[in-house]
Amino acid sequence: xxxxxxxxxxxxxxxxxxxxxxxxxxxxxxxxxxxxxxxxxxxxxxxxxxxxxxxxxxxxxxxxxxxxxxxxxxxxxxxxxxxxxxxxxxxxxxxxxxxxxxxxxxxxxxxxxxxxxxxxxxxxxxxxxxxxxxxxxxxxxxxxxxxxxxxxxxxxxxxxxxxxxxxxxxxxxxxxxxxxxxxxxxxxxxxxxxxxxxxxxxxxxxxxxxxxxxxxxxxxxxxxxxxxxxxxxxxxxxxxxxxxxxxxxxxxxxxxxxxxxxxxxxxxxxxxxxxxxxxxxxxxxxxxxxxxxxxxxxxxxxxxxxxxxxxxxxxxxxxxxxxxxxxxxxxxxxxxxxxxxxxxxxxxxxxxxxxxxxxxxxxxxxxxxxxxxxxxxxxxxxxxxxxxxxxxxxxxxxxxxxxxxxxxxxxxxxxxxxxxxxxxxxxxxxxxxxxxxxxxxxxxxxxxxxxxxxxxxxxxxxxxxxxxxxxxxxxxxxxxxxxxxxxxxxxxxxxxxxxxxxxxx
Amino acid sequence: xxxxxxxxxxxxxxxxxxxxxxxxxxxxxxxxxxxxxxxxxxxxxxxxxxxxxxxxxxxxxxxxxxxxxxxxxxxxxxxxxxxxxxxxxxxxxxxxxxxxxxxxxxxxxxxxxxxxxxxxxxxxxxxxxxxxxxxx
Lengths: 505, 136
What we know:
The structure holds 2 protein chains of 2 kinds.
Chain A: E1 2-4, E2 12-15, E3 18-21, H1 27-36, E4 41-44, H2 60-66, H3 105-115, H4 122-135, E5 138-140, H5 147-159, E6 165-166, E7 168-170, H6 196-202, E8 206-209, E9 211-219, E10 222-231, E11 237-244, E12 247-250, H7 253-264, E13 281-288, E14 303-305, E15 313-317, H8 322-325, H9 333-341, E16 346-353, E17 360-362, E18 370-372, H10 377-396, E19 401-403, E20 411-412, H11 415-423, E21 434-435, E22 465-467, H12 482-498, H13 500-503
Parallel strand pairs in A: 1-8, 2-11, 3-4, 3-12, 4-8, 12-22
Antiparallel strand pairs in A: 5-7, 6-14, 9-10, 10-11, 13-16, 13-19, 13-21, 14-15, 15-16, 17-18, 19-20
Helix pairs in contact in A: 1-6, 1-12, 4-12, 5-10, 10-11
Chain B: H1 6-19, H2 35-45, H3 48-64, H4 80-92, H5 96-114, H6 117-122
């Protein structure tokens, strides 16, 4: 069952075989797989249950409700980068773009070579990807929902000999409402609260929302449960709770899982907790055309090009409603109005970089982590190349103007301007970026001295304490991570099922 | 906004004239757009620390914005051109935290502006509404 913690008594206490913290792409498949194997599962989610979500709401409300800190989370460094995360039943999957990739074999091979991962083979993951893809209905974005935004990019790319194609997405009957990142108004995007979580609930898992975990309980280096607080309507403490369980799974994402470990001062003998943060920094390129495009209509992230993936550059579609796009444009006052008057003639595509830069999550004040990240020059150069490619594609498709994310070069009017971009020696501080895929902060590996969890995602230091989210990725993944998180989580769940005598109370 | 001081109201008024000016190709501006109720509603809804960020940003712009002009005068008492120069400097800053002050503050005006039905009609936005997807 799925329960709002406000219906539970004060000083709530329960026992379980496993307690899972977080209901996103890591926690939900774990809950499902263990409940299916007959484990007594309790899953705790700090956010609320927005199913079915009413989209008669005002534009601000989805941001306030479903994003952590109303979407105002960011990294500190050069440049500082907005890093929005979900906080709702379903985690970030409720507000992501619904893009599905398996981990590239080359990346997995690199992880094997560098970190061992002796218990995990790519062939082990294939059936788990298939299972997850089946559960969340992964399919190629239907051409009729791509909208002019993606089609225009694909046409321009074809003219330049660059391959592009529709993305795989987790959808049923997508009508291209174009609002994936505010919670799908058609319930078409198959985020976790539509599949894994209700399935887990039907199999007997207890899912409690508005429950924030504060403490991981450890007895003699073995996990024994969690303590935390139930939140009231105003997100303030209502009462405390305790869950006793011999297995604790952290699936709070790559910012909050390490923060939880750091706050509790555990599982950090390697000193690697919170380090090696990668975020897939991304920037936007806007093309302004002569004809109407109505880019809001259709799937925003519907197409992509991975022709430059070997260089660490992925190109993926994006677009935003005017109230949000307006403050992301490089202009003020009357000039901004001039741009916004052309809103229906704009198209947008994103440049996502496989980052070699590394940041760090540290303890901040209270339950706020400090996220440090500086973009290095190598990644900056990848952005310049990516911006150049998308701009050329847009010019080939007939754009009369490009709004670039490079300060001081906000407006490009011809291919010649791109030469200026290359000559300008762009620095990290010149770029306007955002990021959506934190990872790497509890990296996995065979050696306890340079990794936090082993390849079945159990911490080296604490028996029964697992981390199942993008924290465990040893380096930047290079593609949208939700499928890989799900497959890894199912892998760890299978390990637990196969070794239940070691863990069950 | 909760406990909005007269000075903060003056700062907001001075900002509105720069960020959502009258005239231009989108025929609506600070005189038509009801931004104050939106700011009050939003500030009441966001967590307390975000509310304090909003207060801090207004305070910073009011009292420290003038440093970009190399003279000491409160933002709300400056002329329109000077105010625009300050906002352009904030927007163009290579320090994201400074740029962030501009971006977050401008959002207080741009969100109510571009979610206004008349403005959305003026720019041709007919996106998802009332459960009907208008794919054109």
